[in-house]
Give the backbone structure.
Amino acid sequence: MKPQDLTESLHKHPFLSNMNEELLRTLTSCASNVIFNEGTYLFHEGEDAKTFYLLRSGRVVLEVRGGERGQIRIQTVGAGEVLGWSWLISPYKWHFDAFALEQVHAFAIDASCLVSKCETDCHFGYEMLRRFSEVLERRLEATRLQLLDVYGSAIGERGENY
Amino acid sequence: MTGTSNIEMRIGSSPSMVPSVAIVRRVIWETDDTYTLLIDPPRGDGRTFAFNAGQFNMVYAFGTGESAISISSDPFRMNILAHTIHRVGTVTSALSRLRRGDTIGLRGPFGTSWPIEEAVGKDICIAAGGIGLAPLRPVIYTLLRRREKFGRIMILYGSRSPLDILYRVELEEWSKAPNTEVIITVDRGDSSWKGHIGVVTSLFSYLKMDTPSTLAMVCGPEVMMKYTCEELERRGLSAAQIYLSMERNMKCGIGLCGHCQFGPKFICKDGPVFRLPQIKNLLDKKEI
């Protein structure tokens, strides 16, 4: 894919909506197209987080290792969403395993390339951090809701304990 | 004394306080702890039992007690009435043990209903959590019966685990209806589950809604509804485009006893279906 085509494709991804063209071109220089087949791992817990992904199609499930409970699936990420922020925060290691439930098409963004662009262009760096902060906030909120186990204690009818 | 007498007279003379006898046709277990009670509707005086989607009945297990249960059947099928019930206490346990031919007491239907007529010509987003799908099932039946009257139908359903998903077969059937999407997510999944994992609000990422022409109907645990309403508003729906169904401990069903008071409202009489601005500042308030 030509850089111009890649820029246009990236522009359609919801994570990058309304990003100005100059910043988008900066990001494009760190981006590539990738495909993961169904049933393969994108990355494993503990590995260096050198990339993040903007998913275009397919679904990925995040798994944590639960000791004797085996692999626990905690969240799926799909088209239009962002996968991975461990590249942003020390010690830059993945905290989950990421498994492709279906064939996945994604943009892979090279983290070392991106970090160097962020450090030399503060405006670009701020824009990326702002967008990632929104994603982090939403995921944190979702995790809190998940922890509440709202359906587990759900009242079954309109008479509460009856 | 005059006031008291009036209240007593109203209660004594109100047919809505006197249960009718209904006959159990079948109990269908939907999950380990949730079942659907199918009954022949009472037909006293040659009348048919009619209800609107979103209303509830007071269901009486003789000798045990009464509980408010949403009606979960098709409003167009007058010959059968369904209530999907989570077995959590003595009444719901007693109801779960009923068999074909047993009798129950029934009062109702009570309360407000989902805004079906207002939804004509619009896209509809239905967001349900857990057993909150039950009060919305009559809406889905109605929308699909009159499919050409409505725009796109989006059904988002969140459940605790794959084993807790209600109406599996119907969800599959609904997803095949024209211009209808059904997206299911679970809070916890294992390796056999290939669907979405995460809270129901995360499903909005997969929808592109034409927000000005969308009406949302939401039902589930209160905290789930609060977050869902916030997400809908974040995506551009106004509060006036969002309806939700509330739960409280209901007793009389007609706004007299006060058990279901919710701030200045009675859920049984003013609800259970509310437009969001009516109750927005009361949602998930510790004091209420």
Summary: The interface with chain B takes residues 14, 59, 61, 71-76, 78-81, 101, 141-142, 145-146, 148-162 of chain A (CB under 8 Å). The first strand of chain A starts at residue 31 and ends at 36.
